[in-house]
Amino acid sequence: MKLLSVAVPCYNSQAYMRHCIDVLLQGGEEVEILIVNDGSSDDTATIAEEYQEKYPFIVRAIHQENGGHGAAVMTGLHNATGKYFKVVDSDDWLDEDAYAKVLAELRGLEQQGTWTDLFICNYVYEKVSANLQRPIRYTNALPEKRLLRWQDVGHFRKGQYLLMHAVIYRTELLRECQLDLPRHTFYVDNLFVYLPLPYVKYLYYLNVDLYRYFIGREDQSVQEQVMIKRIDQQLRVNGLMLEKVQLAKVTDKRLQSYMYNYLEIITTISSILCIRSGTAENLAKKEALWEMIRTKHPWEYRRLRKGIFGRVMNWNTPFGRWAAVQAYKIGQKLVGFN
Q1: Residues pairing with 321 in the sheet
Q2: For 194-225, what is each residue's pLDDT tens digit?
Q3: CA-to-CA distance for 265 and 120, rounded, in angstroms?
């Protein structure tokens, strides 16, 4: 069995996938690199085959019809043979020194005859156009280099939630929780992180800046105008987070609190994008989202509406919408997203 399987979803990635894969190759034969060509029309498939031919004990090239990011991640998971599973998008990369430390730590757990369900590292926003590097770290919330239960976890600040870039899951846990990401839908990385959390008993945090998250391309899915155009997909993910996990039934209060904060942030993003669009159609979608939460998820609704974000997002006056936008802009500057 491999120590780590890394799925690399690729769609027309010929311009940047080599950098990503070349760094991953430094993990040697402990690592399995699953290049998932998601119906590309450029030379992605040829490049994937080239790596598989050159590194047959490390790289597997997998080709499928286009199904979107979630479908590519699920294909990687279905084919993974490693004990742990990570996703690295083809336009991102890992820090080489941090990568070596992560593998050493995972190897150490194996040698001790133990394991963790969720291995967490830092990630770094790499906004090349603005020469911005902003690391997101968890030292305030997570004790380092030891197995943790949820009761050992401290307080996460607003906006300090775990993105897909920060996590490495135990592969069998993802299968046990029957993770199933929707096809042809962006923003499923939130589901990848969120849905397995109730199954996580043990966590492990290594304070290294592992994942380099490239942002700033005009066509990137997290650009605000792109997200507004894809608002239905954002709303779908938001809805699935509510549907698939009933927070009132999460018995561990520390985990429940963390998952609520995550849900609050995603719901805030959904709401503010509808407001930012400025269209009556999208404002109606925001109202429909909150009405759905009220009628189908009353526990979450009561919590969300009492929070400051819920109050601001539902202040349905021109001034209220202006205030919501200003709060969002402050968040952009503080966190550096989009």
Answers
A1: none
A2: 999 999 999 999 999 999 998 865 555 457 78
A3: 20
Residues 315 and 324: their CA atoms lie apart, in Å, by 8
How far apart CA 200 and CA 110 sit, in angstroms, is 18
Phi/psi for 220 (5° steps) reads -70, 145
The answer to whether 72 touches 89, Cβ cutoff 8 Å, is no
What angle (nearest 5°) sits at the alpha carbon of residue 224, between those of residues 222 and 228? Answer: 100
Prediction pTM value? 0.92
Helix then strand then coil, % of the chain, to nearest 5: 50, 20, 30
Instruction: Report the SS3 class of residue 105.
Output: helix
Q: Are 29 and 58 in contact (CB under 8 A)?
A: yes
**Best CA proximity match to 312, nearest among 295, 328, 333:** 328
Long-range CB contacts (< 8 A, 24+ apart) of 135-138? 135/209, 136/160, 136/163, 136/166, 137/207, 137/209, 138/162, 138/166, 138/205, 138/207
Q: What is the pLDDT of residues 15-43, one digit of tens each?
A: 999 999 999 999 999 999 999 999 999 99
Q: CA separation (Å) from 154 to 139, 187, 298? A: 9, 27, 27
CB 33 within 8 A of CB 8: yes
